[in-house]
Task: structure prediction
Amino acid sequence: MVAQRPLRVVRCGGSQLSGARAVFSADAKYLLCASGDYVKVYSTATEECVHILQGHTNLVTGIQLNPQNHMQLYSCSLDGTVKLWDFTDGILIKTFVVGYKLFAFYTLAGSEDSVFIIIPKKNEESLDSFQLVSVKLPKTPDQAVEAKELSLILDDIGQSPKCTAFGREVYLLFWMFFFYIKCINYILATSRKGANNYFTCVACHPKEDCIASGHKDGKIRLWRNFNHKREYTFSTLHWHHDVVMDLAFSVEGTSLLSGGVESVLVQWRDGSDCKKEFLPRLGSAIEHISASPDGTLYCTSHTENSTYSKTTFLLLRCDIKTGLVIDPRTKALVLNGKPGHLQFYCLQTDKQLYNLDIVQQEYIHQIGLNQVDLVKAAFSARGSWLATVEQREEKETELELQMKLWNYDEQTQSFTLNTRINMPHEDHVTALCFRDTDELEDGTPTLVTAGKDGQFKVWVLVDDSDSEKQSMGWNCDFVGSYHNYPATNCCFSEDGSLLAVSFEETVTVWNSDTWDLICTFCHPPGKIQNLCFGRLSCSKYLLGTTDNGFLCCWNLLSCALEWSAQLNVMVLQPDPLSENIAAVSQLLEGSDLFVFKPNEPRPFCIQRNVCRERVQWAVFIPRDVPESVGSEKHQWLSRSQLYFLTETQDLLTFSTKSTEERLTPSSKQLAVEESLPMTPFYLLLGKHRHQQQSKENADLGTAVVQSHLAQVSPAIKELLHTPAHVLPSASFLCSIFINSMLISKENKSAGEVVEVEMDSEKAEDESDEDLDLTEMEQDMNPTEFLDEITQTKLSKSQEKQLRKIRRMDYSWVAVL
Result:
């Protein structure tokens, strides 16, 4: 009997990506990104995550390739350890325990057994001053080793990894010491003039004695002659209007890359202010810039927690105002993306599918400027309609609101704007929801919005067609209120017959056909924070949570409180395919999960300390195929999967599989295929031959040759994938392998046989015209007749029959 796997919390996305600079592999086939306490390995060809390196217990702050072995990776973390990985296979090789919080990590090709790290100056509690030290890594066979031999390099330096850079190793200490002293003198001299020249980042030229520094005033300075006795010189490059956030030289040093709050990647050619190129509209401020060793790819990390190389690998913003919404069509997670955009996020591949521009305005990156923000989003049952709410608040009394209704276009496979409504409410919109039964029953689509102005409004789709064109638009059909209390939540029942709207401490239930008020619930006291109906057999229940920590369940048939519990529930999420409801409560030790049915107040599944952070949002996503779960206690995960998002942008879920097991099979196969050498034999028999589409050939002989090669390909594949120690000798396999690659003569003559058959048919058609010639053929010698036949090319079987005919005696023909 197979042992049941325990249910555990697995991180499936999110985490902080901008905490450390991304690194390319030596062959630029992989991009390695620090993601929370993980290191993720992405393929630059397909953007698939092929490995997840997990082992750290705190935030990863730095990653670097091993200079002695480019197939290995170093990573450091706030947990005080340095780990060495084989990132191509996802294997942890060794752990070095330093004992301090590590904020940055550097390696040099000339230092075989030493690395450089930034640690707190005094102790772990004091984080106001830092120092750069050298750590000697012991060479022992043990997997966990203590690295306590530290050597001080520089004192009182910046915490950020961008504040320290290593140039050519010959001038390492010389560069750092003199440049450090001269930069301090430069700041002291220029700060008296009122200039904002504070350093923000630094980068060293890979080939020359040159250092580039970024400054708070948006200028870039190139320093030279700092390693001579004479006075240093510098030149200035200026395009950024605000702080320069990162700098990076190309591999050969011919270009300098810079980024800032403008979301524009600037490339400076040959250190000239006149030779610059731009890559604009990258979404948000650029935090880090990385270049591949071959110079073909660049990677930027952004403050909105995104990483760009060819496409976006991951994007979960720090401020999620729309919540977690599911697109019914693609099963993608929809939430805030770039400023003014909705992103469609694939949970299986942990990357962004595409962005939908909602605000449709150019984002102006300026500190202190209030921008239009996307705050609400909701889909209809089939995903045909999308409702969004955007707002801009200049002051407390100046509020701009706009609601947009988007229709899905089947031809363009995208959403198009249908209706724009200015100021749908006089105050902030707090909730919006569609009636799901309208699309399922081909009814009129209905949308309900709730606002702090004390009203909820019902919007319906009406026909605005005229004699010139046909059009459909959304209009307000009903406005409801309850004692002018602010409306905070709204939701429809499963059959769409009831609408529940909460007004501060009171829950109201309305008839969705006549919009008459049916009943109200106002106990226990407390403002309503979450509201939802039960489903299936529990559809007669209505549940809500209050700000004083109560979870209440009301019976709609008896109009009375069924039960209540004090759990301090922060998130309440129903499963759309079952009666189960998930509630996440916040305690001092962490967040707890309770899964229950409304008709049974006792939860059937309790998970303590699912995470240390506060859970902001949660959502159930239906599975395409039900998953077999061994334990009856975990059957609630068989048809739907629960995802929840924390304050630190960690997207978590429950699973019985490990993180590495949850990678897609295509990702694992990709890692194996990319490790194969690119030889001529590989090009002949590898994946490139299978990717090419064969053209239709009229010649039968060409088709026979192709089919013959296709038949032997499984044997060749088996030969290449069989371990060498179990194969027969090479001399035995050589003749078999060569014969399998040859083409037999029968296949060569196949086309010629077709020509003989066509000629015979043609001869039969002309037989009537040659009746007079038959008498002459009878007078001819049979041997001469046979010689004429042999002049035509025949197959082997026909040649055998012809030889038998030649041996026969034809003398009796002469008597006739």
Remarks:
- The chain has 13 helices and 53 strands.
